[in-house]
Amino acid sequence: MKKHLLYLLIVITALVQTDQLNAQFRRYPKLRKYDGDRTGRVMDRDVPVVDRYGRPRCCESRNEFNFPLTFNSFSILNQLDSQIAAARRARRKVDEWLKKQENTFLKEINRQMGKNYTSFSTAQREYFKFFESRGGRYGPVTTAHRLEGGHQGRASQQKRKFESHAMEILALDRWRACGYCSRYDGVEVQGTLLGEIRRNKNYYYSQYRRSAIDDFNKSYYQNALADSEARGMDKLIKNGTLLNRLSNYRVHHYRRLGLQDKVFQMSAYLILTGAIRTNYIQYTLPYSLRKYNPPKYWDDDRLLKWGKDLAPAIPHERFIFSEEYLQQQIDYWTRIPIVRISRQKVTQKVERERQEVVEELLKKIKNWYLDLDGDGYHSKIHIGEESPGNKWKTTTKGLDCDDTNKNRKTAEDCEQCKTSKKDLKKMFPNTPDATLTKIADAINKYGKDFGIDTKEKLQHFITQAGHESNEFKAFEENLNYRWERLGLDYWKRYFNPITNPAADPAKANPNDFKRSSTSVYVDVEKFANRVYNDRYRENKIGNINEGDGYKFRGRGIFQLTGRTNYRNFNNFYRTNYDSSVNLINNPDLISTNKNIAVISALWFYKNSVLDKIIVDNNISVKAVTEKVNGGKNGLNHRRTLHAKTQANIDCL
Predict the structure, then answer these.
(1) What is the C-alpha to C-alpha distance for residues 7 and 565, in angstroms, rounded to an integer?
(2) 128: which DSSP letter?
(3) Which of 196, 353, 550, 629 could form an S-S bond across to 528 if both were Cys, CB 3.0 to 4.6 Å?
(4) 3-class DSSP state for residue 624?
């Protein structure tokens, strides 16, 4: 009897599984919103699609199942759902129709992406990458960049900390070496001036040095950890690793679905992608189809974990400062049966290793610069030569003309680097003399305010400025682009090609940006308001108001662009030069007033180049170009110009 019951149970289970696998038919209520005919027409009232016995009212007499699947809105999926419910008896025909829909999906993917894939599996993988990349500022790639920036910020912060603590250790050692002399009374260590602890100098020396070493150990390791995690996140983003991983997850999820769920899930993807508008989804799946919402395979925690998995190993000289290393050493040495060492001795051993690293690092600190006004430039006094004051740094941006006021540097105490109209004429023979005279005078007048104190800094500035301004002949961005090439060249990120102007709903139609019905050029104002509007950009530049794109278009020698850059430079200029000038209300001054144009270029050059890298005879044109341009655009021309500047430009 038990055997018969077991056989019966197996047969019932097989029948149930067969029913579930066969197009995943589910029971539906008798009343549906759609009439169930082949057109999928919406009725004004609820119409039963099955009779009182659960038999469909239509479709059983047809020889095949057919449904025109489109991707305009989610209502088409509700209609398809109703049709499948009505065709429950024609399961084989429905299955055959479901299997054929991959060709329909392939055509829609090619249409949305502007590609010509022949294999659905390949097209689907690339489409899922495309789907993830359409998230904009809320997408996985942008989020990963944000997390990478957080790691880099922490790494920089911890670097400043361990350098500061290393200098505190060095200051204490030098203070003790000179017999606790008064020269170091103004030096601050652990928040206290050394002159205030002279009475108990031996005690405070030991206490403060131990505290500075502990702080150094923590920040030295945390800097390496944050830098490693930033590199791991960069590796995750580069070469499409992140998008490939997310695409594989979605492909795997799709392949595990039944036939009907595959059609509904893929259709939901395609409809959603068509509905994306400027980083937000305009349409969402109706409640009845909520199970087909695309799953989200990432969040901040998961991205951090993936980046950590790809992070390179922390160097040993940094790793020894971690608690993990200490615990590893304790676990190893206290468990060896023959040479078992106590926990205290292992801790002392690790402390000696750490002390050796600290001492070795202190030997590498050869330059210790005094910086009284905190502007990053050092005074003539180096520690050990005279009284060091109370501020010092291991790095410097150059010699300070006046280290008592960060907003004022006098020419008497500083090396100046000037140029002349004659030298610039050798570089740019086609530029008018009057223009070169104004440029040379402005550089000589304001260059020292921005650290142009060596010929290398001057040469690289003139090289980059000459390239960006078309040899000092263009002080405003040229927006005369041909409208028919907007979807093909650099601006294709904002425009569809004219051959398919509606390919991507998130992009603009080039035909709408003609200057006139007969012109081959764009309407520059309308064009600028589109491409420089933050609504359509991933890297925001502050243009949030109507007309900001054209108003704050590229001006000046380095093409200052965007409300944010204009506002920052305006605040700087009004504070340091002329408070009566308002560049937000009069942005054209940056292109028409040559003094302001040069000052804006020097301001940009200092912030983007001199504050980031050391410009000397070892720096390459490529390194400076990457800071100015963000890439390598025009690198060959810049190298040609730099060769000319080296031959013709020198400090006068």
Answers:
(1) 78
(2) H
(3) 550
(4) helix
For 406-430, what is the mean pLDDT?
67
**Cβ neighbours for 63, distance < 8 A, ≥ 6 positions apart:** 93
Instruction: State both tokens at 251.
Output: 């492909």
258, 21 Cβ separation under 8 angstroms: yes
Separation between Cα atoms, residue 486 and residue 506, nearest integer Å: 15
φ and ψ at residue 560, rounded to 5 degrees: -60, 125
Average pLDDT over residues 423-452: 86
60 phi/psi in degrees, rounded to 5: -70, -20
- Nearest one of 595, 590, 545 to 568, comparing CA atoms: 590
**Helix or strand run (H / E) with residue 323:** helix 323-333
In DSSP terms, 383 is beta-bridged to 386
pLDDT at 434 over 60: yes
pLDDT per position as a tens digit, 175-196? 787 777 776 677 778 778 877 7
Of residues 63, 125, 62, 58, the one with CA closest to residue 85: 58
Residues 6+ apart with CB under 8 A from 263: 69, 80, 98, 101
Distance CA 269, CA 293 (A): 8
Please tell me the predicted confidence (pLDDT) of residue 48: 46
Q: Is the CB of residue 346 less than 8 Å from the CB of residue 276?
A: no
- The long-range contacts involving 444-450, CB below 8 angstroms and separated by at least 24 positions, are 444/418, 444/419, 445/595, 446/595, 446/598, 446/599, 446/602, 447/416, 447/417, 447/418, 447/602, 448/401, 448/409, 448/411, 448/414, 448/416, 449/409, 449/576, 449/602, 450/602, 450/603, 450/605, 450/606, 450/610
Q: Cα–Cα distance between 89 and 86 in angstroms, integer?
A: 8
pLDDT digits (tens, 9 = 90+) for 254-277: 889 888 888 888 888 888 876 654
Question: What residues are paired with 385 via a beta bridge?
Answer: none
Neighbours of 127 (CB within 10 A): 27
46 torsion bin: left (phi>0), alpha (psi -120 to 50), beta (else): beta
Confidence category of residue 18, pLDDT binned at 50, 70, 90: low
Whether residue 394 has pLDDT greater than 80: no
Span 527-576, pLDDT tens digits: 888 878 877 777 778 878 888 888 888 888 888 888 888 888 888 888 88
Q: 166 with 362: CB under 8 angstroms?
A: yes
Residue 135 vs residues 65, 278, 279, 574: alpha-carbon distances, Å: 37, 9, 6, 40
Secondary-structure percent of the chain, ordered helix, strand, coil, rounded to 5: 55, 5, 40
Tell me the pLDDT tens digit for each residue of 607-635.
888 877 878 777 888 888 888 877 778 88
Residues near 15 by beta carbon (within 8 Å), at least 6 away in sequence: none
Euclidean distance between CA atoms 542 and 570, whole angstroms: 14
**Predicted confidence (pLDDT) per residue in 44-53, tens digit:** 344 444 443 3
Q: Report the b/e string of 494-523 with b at 16+ CB within 10 A.
A: bbbbeeebeebeebbebeebbbeeeeebbb
- CA distances for 275 relative to 143, 270, 280, 507, angstroms: 22, 9, 9, 12
Residue range 487-510: mean pLDDT, rounded: 77
What is the token pair recorded at 307? Answer: 């980046």
414 closest CA partner among 392, 447, 388: 447
Q: Are 258 and 20 in contact (CB under 8 A)?
A: yes
